[in-house]
Amino acid sequence: MFGIRRSTERRREDAATAAPPGPLRDYLSAPFPDLATPVTELSLLALDVESTGLDVEEDRVLAVGWVPVDGLSIDLSGARRRVLATRRDVGQSATVHGLTDDAIAAGDLPVAVLTELLGALSGRVLLAHHASIEVGFLDAACRRVHGVPFVATSVDTLHLQRRVLTEGLGAQPDPLPGALRLWAARERYGLPRYRAHEPLTDALACAELYLAQVAELSQRSSKPLTLKAIRAT
Amino acid sequence: MADTELAEVADFLAGHAPFAALPARVLRALPARLTIRYHRRGSSLMAVGVDNHDLIIVRSGAIEIRDADGGLVDRCAEGSTAGSTTLIGPNPSRFDVVAIEDTLALHLPAEVFHELSQAHPDFADHFDAERADRLRTAVSSVATNPAGEAILRTSARDLVHRAPVSVGDDVTIAEAARVMTDEGVSSLLVMDGRGVVGILTDRDLRRRVLAVGVDPAGPVTSVMTPDPVVAAADTSALELLVTMTERTIHHLPVVEAGRPLGVVTTTDLMRLERVNMVHIVGDVSKQPDVAGVVAMARRLPRLVEQLVGQDVAADDITRVVTTVGDAIERRLIALAEDELTAAGHGPPPRYCWMTMGSRARHEQALGGDQDHGVILADDAPEGAEDYIGALAEIVVTGLEACGYPRCEGDVMASNPRWRQRLTGWRREFRQWIHEPTSDAVLTASIFFDSRPLAGDDTLHARLAEDIAAWAPQGHNFLGHLVAAAVANEPPLGFFRGFVLARAGDHKDTLDLKRGGVGAIVDLARAHALGAGLVSVNTRSRLLAAGRAGALDPAVAASLVDALEFISHVRLAHQTRQAASGATPDSRLRPSELTPFEQRTLREAFHVVRDAQQALAQRSPGHLT
To answer: Under CATH, which architecture does the B142-273 domain have?
Structure first.
C-alpha cells in the first residue's frame, strides 16, 4: 500500500517537474491529501464531464460541472458549471446532454476552463461516478495543452457502491446490472431524483451519494474511515 | 450565462414555504449560500443545550423535534425546516432534532437567515409563527384565546394533584431513581430537616448521571439541581407558565409556609389549557334551550382545529370531543324531560341513558353519528316505554341539530328495540353471547362498548357485570368477534398504485376508519372481552390485555401508537373538511398526505395487519 502511495506522489512530483510554469504545474506542486486523512476532514471536488462520446482521444468535452466537498459538507458556493466552446459539431450527443451547438458556440475557451478546474482541484481529491472517464478526459486535455500527464488521487462513487453492495450484511456477490449506476445508487439511499446529464446536477448528485456512502461505510467500520480506505487511485 | 445556477436546489426551494414567496432573483442566488449534509437515521442534527447556527431544511427523509423532556414537538418531512428558534431567539437549542429516516439536509447559515428575514417580512413572519407554535404553544394561546381567563383564575395550589414525592439529602442516586420509578414520578424533591434543598428530574438522571457515567452509588446531592426555583401556592397558572417557559424548566415545586405541597409540571399546564377550552364549550350545561346548545356545538370543529394545530395527541382530542358530546347529550336529555313535564307527562321513570360506540370508548371524532339506548328499571310503571320513546324523539332531533347525524343502523333509544327493561337487555346479551349468529354479533358489537350517560348508573353497572362474566365463556361468540376483528383488512394496497374503495363518491379515497381505527377497535374488543376485561376505551383495552397476557405487550403498544397516528391524520382531515364547510368523514384523498404521512400510515397499517394475523393464527377454530 505504501508503495502505491509513493508511486502516486512520485508521479505527481515527476509531472510537476516536467510541466511548464502555469496552472498545471501549480496544481501538481500542491501535495495530495494524506492517505491517513479521516473522511470527516477530507477535501474533495465532485466533478462531472459531458462529452460527445467516451473516447478520450476522439471525443470532445462539451461541458463540466463541479462542486467542493469539505469533510461531510457540500459547499454549494463553490459550485460551477462551464460550457466549452468547441469547433466540432455536437451531433447526436445533444439528445443526451441537451447542449445545442448555439449554447456551445457561446461557451468558454477550453483552456480557460481547464485552468479554472485545475485551480479548484488543487489540494483536493477528485470525486466522480466512474471516475476513470473524468480522469481520462483531464489527462488527454493536459497532454494536449501542456504536454504533461494529469495525476490525481481519486475517489469513485461507483467503486464505493460496489463495496456497499458486496461487503457487509446482506451482501450480494454480484450486484444486479444497473445497481451501480448513479441514479440507482441514489435511489437506494432515498436521495431525491434529479434530471440527469446536466454536468453540475450530476456532480452534485455524485457528491450527495458520496456523503451517504461514507455515512454507511463509517457505520460498518470499526475505525475512523480514511482516504486510504475509500480511494480508487 | 447562469453558469453557477443550481437549478435542482432552487426549484426545490421554490416549491416550499416560506422560500416560495421569495422573489425569483433572490431564490436563484440562494443555493450558492447553502451547504448540504447527509444525516443517517438516528443521528442528531441539533441537541438540547448545544448552540445551533443553521436553519436546517429537509431535502429528503424526515426528522423529529423533541423538547428537553423528550416530548414530541414536531415531525417534519421534505420541505420542512428546523432550527429557527435558535436563530430568532437565544442559543443554546431547547430542542433535540434527530433524523428518523436517512435525511439529506440543506443548511442555511444564520447570517443568510437574518438577511432574508430583514429584507422579506413574509419570510420572517413564517418563522415567527413556527417558533410560537413550537416554543410557546401554551403562552401564545393565552393571548388569543378566551380560555386565557381561566388560566388566570387557576392557582398553583389548584394544579397540585398529589403530595410531593421526596427523599432525604443523605440517599444515593440509585435510591432516588428507585423511589421515582416506584412512585411513577418524573421529578423528586430532596429535603433536609428544614425544607426543599434540591430537585432531581428524569432529565437530570439522563444527562448528569447516565450520559456522563457518574456512579449511581454517589450522593443524590451531587447531581440534583440545588435550591430550585419554587412557586408560592397562590401564584396564578399563567405566572407559572411564564416562569417555566422563561427559565426552560419543566418541574416547579409549589410551597406554602416553607412546606412543599407538590410539583407542577409543564404537562399539567398544557392539560389545564385544554380543560379550559373544554370548559368554554362545556358551558352547554347552562344553556336554557336547544338553540343555545346548538350554538355551543358549532364551536366544536374550531376547537378541534386548534388542538390539531397544537399537535395535541389524538387520544386527548377525541376525549375532548367526547366530553363536549356528553355535555350536549346530557343537556338535551334534561331539556327534553323539562319539556315533557311541562306538557303534563312524568315524572320520569327510573332509567339509564347509555351512550355506545366511539363515544362510549371516549374516542369520538368529528362527524360521529348518534348511538344510544335506554335501560329501564324492571319496576318502572307500565307505559314507561312510551315516556322514553317520546323523550328519545326529542333528544334525537336535538342531537341532529347539533351536528350528530341519526344512526344509520337505527341504534337509538327512539327505536323500541333499544329501550328495554333490564331483564330484556340481559336476555338480548345472553342470546348474543351464547347463541350468536355472525350478523347478530356484528350488529351487537356496538353494545359491548357502552357507558352510562344520564339517569341511574346502577342499571348499567348490573348489565356490565353480567357481560364481563358471560363473555369469556361464549366461545362461539368470541369466534365471531375474532372473525370480525380480522375481516377488515388494512388498505395496504393503497400504497402500491392506490388501490382504493371503488364505489360511488368514495372512489379514489382511503378509508381510515374501516381498516384503520375500526380494525384496531375490533381487535381491542376481541382481546378485552376474551380476557373478561371491563375496560371500554380502546387504548385501555389494549394495554390491559397486554398486562393480562392476552396480547403481546409489545404488540399492544404498537397498536396504541398506530391508533394514535391514524386518528391524528383523520382528525386533521376532518378539521380541513369542517373548515371548508364539508361534512367530516374518514375518507382521505391521497393528495392530502405528505410522503412522510404515507410512509407512517403504511407502517401503522402493517402493525394492524400483523396483529390481525397473529390473532387469527392463535384462534384458528374461531374463524370457521
So the answer is: Roll (3.10)
